[in-house]
Design a protein that fits this description.
Chains A, B: It holds the Pfam family PFK. Chains A, B: Pathway: Carbohydrate degradation; glycolysis; D-glyceraldehyde 3-phosphate and glycerone phosphate from D-glucose: step 3/4. The structure is a homodimer of 406-residue chains. The first copy, chain A, is α/β, with parallel strands linked by helices and 406 residues long. Chain A folds into 2 domains: 5-149 and 304-352, Rossmann fold (3-Layer(aba) Sandwich), CATH 3.40.50; 153-302 and 361-384, Phosphofructokinase domain (Rossmann fold). Chain A has helices at 19-30, 45-50, 62-69, 85-97, 109-124, 151-172, 187-190, 215-229, 248-252, 271-284, 297-300, 307-327, 374-380, and strands at 5-11, 36-42, 54-56, 100-107, 130-135, 174-180, 205-207, 231-237, 289-293, 331-339, 342-348. In chain A, a hairpin with a 2-residue loop joins strand 10 (331-339) and strand 11 (342-348). At the A-B interface, strand 3, helix 3, helix 4, helix 6 and helix 10 of A face strand 3, helix 3, helix 4, helix 6 and helix 10 of B.
């Protein structure tokens, strides 16, 4: 029989374009069941829980909830706190005090780990609690999942960006370096390959954090492409690293900021792109070298979303509630590809997801280590959704010259 | 009576999202008139003319032309060459050799100047030639024009970006600096103000190249906002300069690249944003400070376009051909606002536009010099087009605390 009590939803980690679809899915579904007496939202993730900062989403209008669902970024805001056991104990105390019996945490692998520990706390004192981790991350780095909600939309933004860059660089030529988010997994950077429509379109080179980055090989690659096309468009993961595992940005620049997790800040700065551009200028003697770091635009730009991603993010929220209510189970929701293209959602043990990272499999990376394979293109295409505008070139014939060569 | 001969179209300067609408407008309209015997397109602007690199656009399919019209960036590619008198003479020689009688140059104020000199060359030898400058620039800096084709779409991209940034920064807090294109005119940066929906939305501060930028005042502004909201979102023009007219990026950084016009490269590098972020971190002791430089995305991203901008860019191309054909006149097309919101297109002497720069008028800038006025919001709103998605926040009530404060 279903537990009776309140529902609590929290969002963790970086925002995505569709994370609020999942929120709406959970809220709307949980409001259908009498046993789910209230639906609360924690403000700023786990911080909001320990501080008892809750919104009563039972009193949110459905209309506004649908508007919020279409709004990117975390409507409940987020946190970068990664709770330890003590913190998880505090979380549990609050859940118990508010008679919360269903805890849905929308997040990545760190959030899954929090769900795991909170579930253990409840078990210790025999407090009946349904705990469900619902996936989201633009990095697409959760194990067991074919892909994660949020990835398709961020990938679509990256594709739209590189489509434009192809057109822009072609007009004036030169070298262009676009730096894409992704500390450990290169899925988002790899998405740029979809921008190649015409044979000489970029990105001509794609560098991922899965492989060692060698500056010398990079320069050889760039020169080869530039000599051939008079231009070279490059997609680089912010997380590319050298043979010792050191982020390349730290080997090229000093005085970088360290974030709360002890990692070098890779986003919110143009350091990596600027440093690589400088190498290309100085070492290859190419004068027009530009770099853009796509930064926060990739995960929160308003107006670029994959409809497939939206739908899946909504459904996985609904399914989370349905499984917790009807099946009385804990775990982590996962997306599995069942056809071309169809998916289903399954529940796995949260410990199978927690604190683990999926990276690009070998079959998605070309053997030169500077581009993707056709297997990857097949993998990603449906995730980008429908209605993606495709650029077109003029096809008119050349006019014979009258003065030159006479 | 209309001249009989060929039509030549070229595109100059930086690309926009709708410049190919203007191209399509000229091509489709010119193909209606028997006296316009062929319609050529010059590849890489004036470079393509002197090298006789022409496409025969009479043989472009209408369907593909419509696809190209929807594609951002210059389909005929571009050039950064600013022709001197000798170069304009060479251009004229080629026009004459190909019996070109209509020359349409889509570009900014530099392109207008080229049109002016080419017209003079033709007049010198009594060669009958219709020369028309058709405006485009994301900078919106052409005099006499209410606004320019390309501006509305780039502005829409900037708005969509800051809407997302508002949501993203709100979730985790901190200071965010977004660097927007605009060397002399701040219109594009100012557009960010439209992203403010809720009272505490950013951008809280907007800095334009029209006013002197004082680092000390900037830091005071940032601190005031940050103390109030726990966050501060800032839009900065890449062209902000100090009292002596020196770009701020050069006062904060050394070893910057000089472009073909002798100007410091402001785009394609994160230098300005990173330098300002460093100042905020070091001087104000705020730990989470991020900056993004929107770079080339603002002018070529595929999938963000204003329908108003599209329509006007198309119409102004058509009108250019109609005026040249039916009225037998030379000049520069301009856009005038005639109602709220309606426009008409007029022809002015190209010398009235050439090599002149419009900047933000005083009535569009607030008296503190760190934001825009309501007059500017009224001015820009229609240019952004329809269907702009507006973010929504949750409106649910707070839940009373049970543990804290008891």
């Amino acid at each position: 029989m279903a537990l009776k009590g309140k529902v609590l939803i929290a969002q963790g980690g970086g925002p995505t374009a569709v994370i609020n679809q999942t929120l709406a899915g959970i809220v709307l579904e949980s409001r259908k069941y009498g046993e789910m007496t209230r639906t609360y939202g924690a403000i700023h993730g786990v911080e909001g829980i320990v501080n008892e900062n809750f919104l009563d989403l039972t009193q949110e209008t459905s209309y506004n909830l649908e508007q919020v669902a279409m709004t990117p970024s975390s409507a409940l805001w987020s946190t970068r706190i990664k709770p330890d056991s003590k913190y998880c104990h505090d979380i549990f105390q609050v859940l118990q005090a508010h008679d919360i019996r269903y805890f849905f945490y929308i997040g990545g692998n760190d959030s899954a780990d929090t769900v795991r520990i909170v579930a253990e706390e409840a078990q210790k004192v025999n407090y009946a609690l349904r705990t469900v981790h619902v996936p989201k991350t633009i990095d697409n780095d959760l194990v067991l999942n074919d892909h994660t909600p949020g990835y398709g939309s961020a990938a679509r933004f990256v594709v739209q960006t590189f489509m434009g860059i192809n057109l822009d660089v072609r007009a004036i030529k030169g070298v262009y370096i676009g730096v894409v988010m992704g500390r450990n997994a290169g899925f988002l950077t790899a998405a740029s390959a979809i921008a190649q429509k015409y044979p000489d379109d970029g990105p001509h080179l794609i560098y991922l954090p899965e492989l060692e980055f060698h500056l010398e090989k990079f320069l050889v690659d760039v020169k080869r492409i530039y000599d051939r096309y008079g231009m070279c468009i490059i997609a680089v993961s912010e997380g590319i690293r050298d043979a010792s595992g050191m982020p390349i940005v730290t080997t090229l620049r000093k005085n970088l900021e360290i974030d709360g997790h002890g990692n070098v800040s890779l986003s919110g700065t143009g350091a990596l792109g600027d440093s690589l551009a400088q190498q290309v200028k100085e070492r290859l003697g190419i004068s027009r070298v530009r770099s853009d770091t796509f930064g926060y635009l990739q995960r929160s730009f308003v107006g670029s979303v994959s409809d497939i991603d939206q739908r899946e993010a909504r459904e996985i929220g609904e399914r989370a509630v349905q499984l917790a209510y009807w099946n009385n189970v804990n775990g982590s929701l996962t997306i599995h590809r069942t056809g071309n293209y169809s998916v289903d959602y399954r529940l796995v043990g949260v410990e199978e997801i927690a604190a683990k990272t999926k990276v690009m499999p070998d079959e998605f990376i070309n053997k030169d280590g500077n581009h993707v394979t056709e297997a990857f293109l097949l993998y990603i295409r449906p995730l980008l959704g429908s209605g993606l505008q495709i650029p077109s070139h003029l096809m008119a014939p050349r006019v014979p010259k009258l003065l030159i060569g006479k």
